[in-house]
Amino acid sequence: MFIDLDQDGFITAAEWKIYAATMGAENALLAIRPGGHGDATSASLVWKYQRSVPQLPTALLYQNVLYMLNDTGVLTTLDPATSAVFKQGRVRGAADRYFSSPVASDSKVFLISETGIVTVLKAGGNQEILAVNELDEECYATPAIADGRIYIRTRSTLYCFGKPLSQ
């Protein structure tokens, strides 16, 4: 059980305290104005968004759109200045769990599910799907992008997709 942190079969007072604090925590994405000192949350808070906030994948800001993919595959695209929702819904063609964070390059956003489904979106708030491909292997790692290539590590393979190097 995840509450039993030391896996000794018993829940101690310290383990219960950690569990209670975790369950009582507020899950939200906050936009904070920079430049504050001390606890500047109330004075510097620009907006707070609390719906379908991920536990693991990190939000992505790309071409003035904030992409937030939660663990169950709900993708929310937001206006980063106001938190106004452009669109929210499950990733079409890839209803799955997500551990890796979205990445972007070349006006495309890449989402990779736990079962290795790679969804390519056109950058923008509409969540327009350009392609859905299956790697047929579990993926938990966030892809890396460099020199026009995307590197995807699955359970046993490292893939590299991109145009060939010019000679």
Key words describing this protein structure:
4-stranded antiparallel β-sheet; 2 helices; 167 residues; single chain; mainly beta; 10% helix
Work out the strand percent.
35-45%
Q: What is the helix content?
A: under 10%
The structure class reads: mainly beta
User: How many strands?
Assistant: 13
Dominant shape: globular
- Helix segment tally: 2
Low-confidence stretches: none
The helix/strand order is HEHEEEEEEEEEEEE
Q: Mean pLDDT score, rounded?
A: 90
Reading side by side through the largest sheet, how are the strands ordered?
Answer: 3-4-5-6
Largest sheet: 4 strands, antiparallel
Radius of gyration: 19 Å
Distance between the termini: 55 Å
Please tell me about this protein's structure.
There is one protein chain. The chain is mostly beta strands and 167 residues long. The chain is 10% helix and 37% strand. It has helices at residues 13-24, 41-44; strands spanning 29-32, 45-49, 60-62, 65-69, 74-78, 85-90, 103-105, 108-112, 117-122, 129-134, 144-146, 149-153, 158-162. A hairpin with a 6-residue loop joins strand 5 and strand 6 (85-90). The longest helix is centred in the first third of the chain and has 12 residues, at 13-24. The protein is globular and about 60 Å long. The mean pLDDT is 90.
Summarize the entry for a quick read.
This protein is mainly β.
Give the topology:
Elements: H1 13-24, E1 29-32, H2 41-44, E2 45-49, E3 60-62, E4 65-69, E5 74-78, E6 85-90, E7 103-105, E8 108-112, E9 117-122, E10 129-134, E11 144-146, E12 149-153, E13 158-162
Antiparallel strand pairs: 1-2, 3-4, 4-5, 5-6, 7-8, 8-9, 9-10, 11-12, 12-13
